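Per your request, structure below.
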């Protein structure tokens, strides 16, 4: 009689672990976005504090900051949806009465938000790469290495 209870608990834990891995991956992406946004912010502050006129890279730094903020917001939405999906799985396993359709919407929202977050990050990488190529063509040092 104890055997079915243990196997049921194992199934519940296994089902709940899949979204935990998605949550951990999302947290990793958010960490990367935060570090990159910090570097862009430091660069903007360095330019402003030095009294130099904001050069032509200022609009690109602002675009980079904007795309990183968008990526971070979408990543946070993905994390919230994933956490809610985990709660939904546990509530369903404990027969609290959450609807099964919630799981589809929460996982779908998490995946769509994470993909959109990665697309925003891709735009930031393209802006950064374009800036670096233009600076190297003009013989300047890359951003942040002056």
């Amino acid at each position: 009689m104890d055997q079915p209870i243990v196997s049921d608990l194992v199934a519940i834990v296994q089902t709940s672990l899949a979204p935990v891995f998605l949550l951990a991956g999302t947290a990793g992406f958010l960490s990367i976005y935060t570090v990159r946004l910090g570097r862009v912010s430091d660069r903007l502050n360095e330019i402003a504090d030095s009294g130099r006129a904001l050069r032509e890279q200022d609009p690109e730094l602002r675009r980079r900051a904007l795309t990183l903020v968008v990526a971070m917001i979408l990543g946070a939405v993905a994390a919230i949806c994933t956490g809610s999906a985990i709660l939904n799985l546990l509530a369903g396993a404990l027969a609290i009465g959450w609807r099964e359709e919630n799981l589809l919407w929460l996982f779908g929202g998490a995946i769509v938000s994470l993909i959109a977050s990665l697309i925003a990050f891709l735009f930031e990488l393209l802006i950064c790469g374009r800036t670096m190529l233009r600076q190297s063509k003009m013989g300047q040092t890359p951003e942040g290495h002056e």
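The mean pLDDT is 82.

Regards,
D.
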